[in-house]
Design a protein that fits this description.
Strand order of the largest sheet: 13-23-24-25-21-26-27
Largest sheet: 7 strands, mixed
Number of strands: 27
Structural class: alpha/beta
Strand content: 15-25%
Length: 953
């Protein structure tokens, strides 16, 4: 039998085992009952089903892939094709088939329906077979081993991943993209780290080694396709044997035994599914990396920051969508990798930023580069097909078209001054030798089918040229025969033609049969005419067909030889593919920077200086809204900012935009801000939003606590932590206690830079107790029941959450809203999470004591560090911009948002000792806005201020 069957036997010898068969996979029961009576073809089908019990076998019969019995019913239903039947002496069997020439769409449906497919092809020419045509499974299609472009989205990765566990409890992870040959290996120390790394890899299919069963995604939502395997697949001996085809000293090249076994398992499985009886030659680089060498983003961070997927209602754009302005599939895949693993090496970040800056500053060259890159095909997938011997003539022409672009790319890069892109230019090797071989051999527009001829230029080979010349001469003789015979016989209606069955013929209509020469031999009788041939025509036919057949066969051999020669250059082509991909990704970042008015961030030497962003914007939200309010962020090392404010005011957006700015900077991108000085973070943690994992036994609050646990265990002083509403899933007292303890622990123990959005206003008093904790808030204006959100960050704590007003805006019935108002007014429920907590327990309505005239007010409060109301806002702080148009109004029982000191030169006004009237505040604020201070004399200004002061009494 073929080498493909040998592969299955080899895997069985090492104990390879795939998932258990189902009712539609494995040998059909109805056939098993009659296995000794089946026809040879059905016996062959039954044998292949037995060898691939996990898969739905599609069995080539002529031009179709057929399935029988229960599998046929699945194919008919899933692919929406007709269910027929096959009858023989042993019975009737359901049968359904899909056309081989158009199989991709049907195969995609089956893979999407979670079926594994074994393609059993005819590996013997039916014309040469003396009996039953040999068939073998040439490929197994699984979610993680799809290689066909028609089944994969352009510019994406599709990882098959394996996990092995060591005796010490550490894990080895190996992943391969079978379509491109990318392969990498790493280790993690525990199950939490394993979950994090797998979420970052986002595998399409997982192989778990012994003792790694029952493992799920950290976010509880990602559905992995897990393939059961025999533990023997992860044996060290089998792994070393497999890896020896890829690495000279596999045991020395990989750091741990778990890595060795994981890599061996994933490559063995990949070889099996591709039907190869040896190493996958295009997997030429197995890269080992340490996950700590990149900014760590776990599942919660990837999800809540919406880097790749927006899971909200009416899901919209993601960060990747915003920065993806790539021109080719290579660049898109590269940019995706960069975003999944941002850099932590400051020098590497600066090198990328320098390259992006050079492209941003040279708009004309950048535009021309992007146009050229549109002509670049996906070399990574092309070289995979070439190496596996599955590339078509059009694939080689696509490679040539890509190589033809390289000299122009190099010329354009040379026009950019400086050294930022010199390295990229040098790595763009033209590969002229490969391009010339392809161009000299393959015609410009080759046919789809390789075996039908017309693929190789006749000038490429002397023998081929002679055969094509003979064929052409014969066809020319036939073309001239019609005119010659008309003249010779006098039959004007005489014609010369050809068909696949009878070959060349001379056709004469019935009324002219009397004029047919005796040398004509009848070949075929039609209703209104007769067809003849002559000895000369038959000789020419044999000459033409013989030459054409030999030429087609020679073309096939020449093409296969050329494909093998190109395949030998796999590593060079892959290096070029990487250079093209990175250039395209850099052009994409530069385009986004120019179009979005991004600026180059300053990367600080360490996190000790913290985060300083001026006029920062959310890169995604600003593209979906007609206007966006920029905000500053000033967060020193170890500081915790407690952010309060109404729902919908922008707290979550603000926190996310700070994190996304840091992520963008660490992939080497410019950032949406007026200015930014940023540290190199080691990790970003997020505890944002609410979700559950009921199937895994986790409620919303339990998931919240699990995410919080990871932060408190793994955060460092180089981390950025985003917390949103910690503790809201339980009672007010318990929740506030957890929130307070969490804040204190992060500040006292971790020292991580932290943004903590909360409605527990009692937490704001921590700013008085600990240096390094400060308050920020998002303000709003209220006129009656109407609330306007300003979306501006300001120092100090918010005066109210406006929850009832937001409920009204959301459409909650008015009776419910009114009842809520009455409950609050009668103090039947605690307000703003202050009940039951030692933090913020003071309920005094008195204003704070005035500071001495020359005393600097505390940045977190409106007066001294002693007792103050929970709703009191903070003093002006130079860490954020303080917009002069921003103000709040309050109901009669609330203090004004900003303290009197901010309106009266830093000194409290003794005249204002009662709650201020809302209308008076509005009038004064409007009057202040309209003042033209520059044109007033000092005396006029003082008189005006006195009048306004009187208005507030």
């Amino acid at each position: 039998m073929s080498r493909f069957l040998d592969i299955s036997e080899v895997f069985m010898l090492v104990g390879f085992c795939l998932p258990f068969m189902t009712s539609v996979t494995g040998p059909p029961e109805t056939m098993m009952e009659k296995q000794h009576e089946l026809t040879p073809m059905l016996s062959q089908y039954l044998e292949l089903c037995s060898q691939h019990e996990d898969a739905l076998v599609l069995f080539q019969v002529g031009d179709f892939y057929e399935a029988f019995c229960e599998a046929a019913e699945v194919v008919a239903r899933t692919c929406e094709v007709t269910l027929t039947q096959r009858e023989d002496s042993t019975g009737t069997y359901p049968m359904a088939g899909i056309p081989i020439d158009n199989a991709s769409g049907y195969l995609k449906r089956l893979v999407d329906a979670d079926y594994r497919i074994a393609l059993a092809d005819q590996i013997q020419d039916a014309a040469e077979a003396s009996g039953l045509v040999d068939r073998a499974v040439t490929r197994v299609i699984t979610p993680g081993t799809v290689v066909d472009d028609e089944l994969l989205e352009a510019g994406t990765t599709n990882y098959l991943t394996s996990v092995a566990q060591s005796e010490s409890g550490t894990f080895g992870i190996a992943a391969i993209d079978v379509s491109t040959g990318e392969c990498f290996v790493t280790s993690v120390g525990d199950r939490a780290g394993l979950s994090e790394e797998l979420d970052r890899i986002a595998p399409a299919e997982l192989l778990f080694g012994p003792s790694v069963a029952d493992f799920s995604s950290a976010d509880g939502l990602t559905a992995w396709s897990v393939t059961d395997t025999d533990p023997a697949l992860f044996d060290r001996g089998a792994a070393v044997s497999c890896l020896s085809g890829y690495l000279a000293d596999p045991a020395d090249r990989l750091e741990t035994d778990a890595e060795l076994r994981a890599a061996g398992a994933v490559l063995s499985y990949a070889e099996y599914t591709q039907g190869d009886d040896g190493s996958l030659e295009y997997v030429s680089r197995i890269r080992r990396y340490d996950h700590r060498e990149h900014l760590r983003l776990d599942a919660a961070a990837i999800q809540s920051l919406e880097l790749f997927e927006n899971r909200g209602l009416g899901a919209g754009e993601t960060l990747f969508d915003v920065i993806d302005e790539t021109s080719c599939a290579l660049g898109r895949r590269c940019l995706n990798r960069w975003l999944r693993r941002p850099l932590v090496d400051r020098e590497a970040i600066e090198q990328r930023l320098e390259a992006v800056a050079a492209l941003t500053d040279n708009a004309v060259v950048r535009t021309e580069l992007r146009e050229l890159l549109k002509d670049a095909y996906d070399l990574e997938r092309l070289v995979g097909r070439i190496s596996r011997g599955r590339a078509t003539p059009r694939d080689l022409r696509s490679l040539h078209a890509t190589l033809a672009v390289i000299p122009e790319l190099r010329e354009k890069l040379a026009e950019i001054d400086g050294t930022a892109l010199e390295g990229h230019r040098e790595r763009l090797e033209p590969l002229t030798d490969i391009a010339d071989q392809i161009d000299s051999a393959v015609v410009d527009d080759p046919p789809m089918e390789l075996t039908e001829g017309g693929v190789i230029r006749p000038t490429y080979d002397d023998t081929l040229a002679d055969l094509r010349s003979t064929e052409q001469a014969g066809r020319q003789w036939v073309a001239e025969l019609e005119a010659h015979e008309r003249e010779r016989t006098g039959i004007e209606s005489l014609s010369v033609g050809h068909n696949q069955v009878h070959g060349y013929y001379i056709e004469v209509t019935n009324p002219n049969l009397d004029s047919v020469p005796e040398a004509y031999t009848r070949r075929q009788t039609l209703k209104n005419s007769e067809r003849f041939y002559t000895p000369e025509l038959k000789a020419r036919e044999d000459e033409i067909f013989g030459a054409a057949e030999r030429a087609d066969s020679l073309e096939y051999e020449l093409f296969c030889s050329l494909r093998e020669k190109v395949g030998v250059e796999t590593e060079r082509i892959q290096r070029l593919a990487t250079a093209i991909a990175e250039l395209d990704a850099l052009c994409s970042l530069a385009t986004v920077a120019a179009d979005g008015e991004y600026i180059r961030p300053t990367i600080r030497d360490s996190t000790a200086a913290g985060i300083d962003i001026e006029g920062g914007r959310h890169p995604v939200v600003e593209t979906t809204q007609p206007s966006f309010v920029p905000n500053d962020a000033d967060l020193s090392a170890g500081e915790v900012a407690i952010i309060t404010g109404p729902n919908m005011s922008g707290k979550s957006t603000y926190m996310r935009q700070v994190a996304l700015t840091c992520v963008l900077a660490q992939i080497g991108s410019f950032v949406p801000a007026e200015a930014a000085e940023l540290p190199v973070l080691d990790r970003i943690f997020t505890r944002v939003g609410a979700s559950d994992d009921i199937a895994g036994g986790h409620s919303t609050f339990m998931r919240e606590m699990s995410e919080l646990t990871e932060i408190l265990h793994d955060g460092t002083e180089n981390s950025l932590v985003l917390l949103d509403e910690v503790g809201r899933g339980t009672s007010t007292a318990d929740g506030l206690a957890i929130a307070q303890a969490t804040t204190e622990f992060i500040h006292d123990e971790l020292g991580a830079m932290t943004l903590f959005a909360t409605h527990y206003h009692g937490l704001t008093n921590l700013a008085d107790e600990r240096e390094g904790i400060f308050n920020l808030h998002f303000a709003a204006t209220r006129e009656g029941d109407e609330v306007t959100f300003l979306h501006r960050i300001a120092p100090g704590a918010s005066s109210a959450s406006y929850g009832i007003e937001v409920a009204r805006m959301a459409g909650v019935p008015e009776t419910v809203v009114e009842r809520a108002n009455s409950v609050v007014a009668s103090s039947e429920v605690p307000v703003d999470g202050t009940a039951g907590s030692s933090v913020g327990s003071s309920e005094s309505s008195q204003p704070p004591a005035d500071p001495a005239p020359n005393e600097e007010p505390d940045r977190n409060s409106g007066g001294t560090d002693t007792e103050r109301p929970n709703e009191q806002t903070g003093a002006v702080d130079d860490r954020v911009s303080y917009p002069d148009e921003e103000f709040e109004t309050a109901d009669s029982d609330d203090r004004v948002s900003y303290p009197a000191e901010e309106f009266f030169g830093g000194v409290g006004d003794p005249a204002v000792d009662e709650p201020l009237d809302e209308e008076s505040i509005v009038r004064v604020a409007v009057a202040l806005r309209s003042l033209d201070v520059a044109s007033m004399t000092p005396l006029e200004a003082l008189n005006t201020l006195d009048e306004l002061r009187t208005t507030l009494k």
